[in-house]
Amino acid sequence: MSKPSVMTSQTDDVFYFLSAHRSLKAAGIHSRLSVPAKDRHFQTAVTQAFARARAAGIDKPVLMGAIPFDMDQPSELFIPSCHGFFDRAERLEAASRRAAAAGQAVSARSMPDEPGFKSAVCQAIARFRHGDIRKAVLSRVYEVEFAEPLAADKIFDALCRQNPHGYQFQLPLSVGGHLVGVSPELLLRKHGASVHTFPLAGSAKRQADAHADQAAGDALLQSAKDHYEHSLVIEDIRGVLAPHCVELSIPDAPSLLSTRAMWHLGTPIEGRLADPSMTALKLACLLHPTPAICGFPTAAARELIGQIEPFQRGVFSGMVGWCDEEGNGEWAVTIRCATVAKNRARLFAGAGIVEASTPEAEWAETQAKLGTMLAAFGLTGMEALA
């Protein structure tokens, strides 16, 4: 762990961002950074936060946390009092030895409900046919109330056990409670001049039967609708990264990526920056939000989402991760996640809508995506109440 400093806020919590490349464990909150990422003073505020941490005696400070879907909203970033990088396998092994979370749900509701979500899909498709928007990602919140207070660390352990791949995270929120999740999608990783991103778009539910499961993956790989949706994401990312890279490698076609609950189309993208001093956080903010979680064109899709969705997304479909003072870092897309506070949890799921979408299929996709977090809460099948 890095050298600790005098903490400006007291907490016994431990926070995590786990990755196959580099995993971070942190404790305590030295300072918070709530300046919105779109604010023109944001990058200056980041630099000043690092300087204050060093002055307080923190060795090689890191900034970690989350940035909301709407970058005009306050950031949920903080510099921990102490931190260290370690082998993720240690934390996964520890999680495997702990008791499973077992909560008793007393109520649950979806916002919007099934008719409301399907109506929103129809509204979006109608807009596609009479405007320039080609894709919009619509989402829903699944709120669950439990009989007893929830323990975020137990939910995190369950996610680690059930989903050992991807990006696992457990982080504090300024309003209280925690953000927990396991994202399959890399927004950006940077080390020196090297950058990587692995966007996902186009999904299908995994099947219990091995032959049916493989058939579902093969069908996704052949789906013209999903390839079209995926291509919008790739071309947008190409347009953002190309001006900053002297080399940019993008495969001609996506490949299949599987999680516990879903098949996804994914494209691994690698680049070499023209200016290695550009930070991971700054570049991630240029990419965010990608069409994978917003739509295309971005500005018009975001406006449509604001008109149709009956709630504010907050940190859901934002970005979560860390960066250091040298500009290196890793940021994942904040999906397959929940916010946990006292005896309440808010789970999130979304689906990419294009003109060829159907309301029934998109609702089913959100149901399938909720499965990851429902299983972590021990609530498999609860989505039937939504």
UniProtKB/TrEMBL annotation:
Residue stretches making up the Chorismate-utilising enzyme C-terminal domain: 115-369
Enzyme Commission number: 5.4.4.2
Metal-binding as UniProt keyword: no
Keywords linked to the UniProt accession: Isomerase
Record field: catalytic activity: chorismate = isochorismate
InterPro entries: ADC_synthase, Chorismate_C, IsoChor_synthase
Ranges annotated as spanning the membrane: none
Family recorded in the similarity comment: Belongs to the isochorismate synthase family.
Protein name (Swiss-Prot/TrEMBL): isochorismate synthase
